[in-house]
Write the structure tokens for this entry.
Amino acid sequence: MNLQQLRYVVATAEHRTMTDAARSLYIAQPALSRAIRDLERELGMTLFARSGRGVVVTAQGRRVVKLAKEALDAVHEIESLASHGRSADTELRIASTPSLEPGLAGRLLPAYTEKNPAVRVHIVRCDGRDGVVSAVRDQRADLGLTDLPVPTDLISHPLERQEVVLISPPGLDLPDTVPMARLTGMRLVLPPRGSARRREFDQMFAKYGVRPVSAAETDERGGWLSPVRAGVGSLLWYRGMAEQALRAGLVVRSLDPPVRRVIAIVHARRRLPGIVQDFLALAEGGTAA
């Protein structure tokens, strides 16, 4: 049994369905099912039994899940001990997506560095939520700033809800608040097909029964405003980017019904150094949910 298998067992027990557990782990559901079956054969015991569309933990499985959680906690504790005494202890590394970095740099970091002038803060720039998760898991970052959900092996601290708005070139005949139905046929700048972020957009479109037109597809979120300025299409982005869009001469409109995403700070399940705990305390005390 390896650490990855332990995470699979814990996630499956927490979510009670293979589909939800696989989604939280960012793997395919058949791959998770095969991994659990392989582990059960390796151990010679049944960990999960099917119940309707989900699974329940067996008596043997409950014991394994408990021990798996303890083992993961012990590993995180060892990693934390190993980090003590390193020069990185005076450096706080925060992974962030391009969309959320302006809020981080403009609001949280100045307040933190004012109180902790000896701590160097390094922003690890990541292209999307998956990049933030990987940076935190690989210990390239102490904390991550991203929207939820994230895999269950990470701990999340929700900070605020950010509104998703429509950013458009000037001159479009649209009301100040755009009904979701108006997105049908609208030309939008979107993430590439097949990407995790694009799947989230497609799920939102399916939820509201709308079918926009993909005018441009790119993962370079730092350049998303360029095609909008060029009149290629409109863009769905966070309200926090509205000031940048307005400076570029673009029009920002709310959606009806409103769409909001929970923004959170995430970190691994291990004891955090004092400088990291201080940043968490400041962030949770200075933001509105």
User: Anything to note?
Assistant: The first strand starts at residue 48 and ends at 51. The chain has a mean pLDDT of 87.
